[in-house]
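Reader question, answered in our methods column.
A reader sent in the components of a multi-part assembly and asked whether the whole thing could be modeled at once rather than chain by chain. We filled in our standard form and ran it. Here is what they sent:
COMPLEX SIZE: two components
ENTRIES:
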Amino acid sequence: MLWNGLRAYGLIVAMWTRSTMAYRASFAMMAFGNFAATAFDFLAILIMFSHIDSLGGYSLPEVAFLYGTAGTAFGLAELFLGSMNRLGSRVRDGTLDTLLVRPVPVLAQVAADKFALRRLGRIVQGLLALAYGLAALNIDWTAVRVLMLPMMILSGAAIFGAVFVVGGAFQFWAQDASEVQNAFTYGGTTLLQYPPSVFGKELVRGVTFVVPLAFVNWVPALYVMGREVPLGLPRAVAFLPPVVAVVCCALAGVAWRAGLRAYRSTGS
Amino acid sequence: MRLYAVVAAGGFRRYATYRVATVAGVFTNTVFGFIMAYAYTALWDERPRLGGYDLAQAVTYVWLGQALLAACATIGGGFEDELIERIRTGDVAVDLYRPVDLQLWWLAADLGRAAFQLLGRGVVPMAVAAVAFDLALPGDPLTWLAFLFAVLLGLVVSFAIRFLIALSAFWLLDGAGVAQLGMLAAMFFSGMLLPLNIFPGALGEVARALPWSSLLQVPADVFLGERTGWDLVGAFGFQAAWALALLAAGRALQSVATRRVVVQGG
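And here is the structure of the entire assembly that came back:
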């Protein structure tokens, strides 16, 4: 089942990639546009730091590190699952039915639908900010800290991916509410770009314990930078992101199945 | 004139039918408002009176941005996608036969849409913000009126820019790339990410002189009482001048494009 799904996902992705690559110049422009769009919000942070030395007690390289980890993790999730917010329109116009009758998992089809390789632009931009942060910071590197970097980015991508899937499942019920998903995905990554000290305690609690976005980067990144973990949690929670990611993905799977069962075709 | 009023009312009603989408949009605007208001608070804590704003004004600025985002179609969602599609498929030829003006027709429809977005997606986030934050709301009803007038001018400027973007599809056939560039420029140069008055040096001067500042920066400054007396007249003049210039450019481009369509035979 899982293997079948991944294989189908890969095939559909390859198909969309080939079709995008038919117009290489157009692809290059769109990928650059994607890169520039996300670069502007880093530029806004640079403009902020042209007036200040620290934001909420954090220096520019530290904010760049947070920005880069959040951006890269989110960029990966968006690349692989960003099409999930088109589900609502498929439910509305009835084209979801076509996907249901194919002998391929629906999630794989919806996730790969109109796969947009141009979203690499955001990942590149996130990696550049991350590289700057890493170069400018004076991190006391240990083997554990080095390993935490790929761990947090992959776990973070999986956590954001779970949010995308839950958002998709939600659209089985609320068909034209895809914007709610944006609040958690795009809103979430904007939130994580800034240090937790900027936000109210309640908000930080909410994104730690309710929608566990804090595990995407705040919790592990603060450990890597040798800072206190937010909310006075023990330092060991910095190693939890993979666990949180697995739990989130499992819950997203449950939500997805519930959504799919609740689906009633429009009949059109 | 009556016809365009009907078209505008139609634009309003059309968007008013998407109730769930509106509620979802209100939720998203509110979430983004909170995140940005906290970030601005951290910035203004560090540098009080940055850009001439006090903290309450800075936070109010964030929420004005969220309230105007959908109305100005800063990140898309306006009429332009539809017009681009009609140009691409050739349906626009039918529009040109109609005894109405293409530009005025879309302007009316887009203003109707914007009026709904302003009410539907602007009022609630602002009310939530007024409960959660200390906002700098104007006490004088005249300031509110002046603000609404500035918003109206900003909406016309926004329309005029997007009309030019849409017409580019006559030459490029695929308008997606230009539309994306347009959104980027609107997002950054309207002051949506950060107020233009804290942009450094020449970048700030250029940004404040570009038409996009009419979308958010100018209305926000009117709302926050930063532009009064002759300065207020100057603000309106700035917006009106851009609106007229861009509408005229759109009209010129429209007539060139129309001739081109006729030559191509649609």
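What stands out: Chain B touches chain A at residues 18, 20-21, 23-25, 27-28, 31-32, 34-36, 38-39, 41-43, 46-47, 50, 174, 176-177, 180-181, 183-184, 187-188, 193-194, 198-200 (CB under 8 Å). The mean pLDDT of chain B is 92.
Send us your own complexes using the same form.
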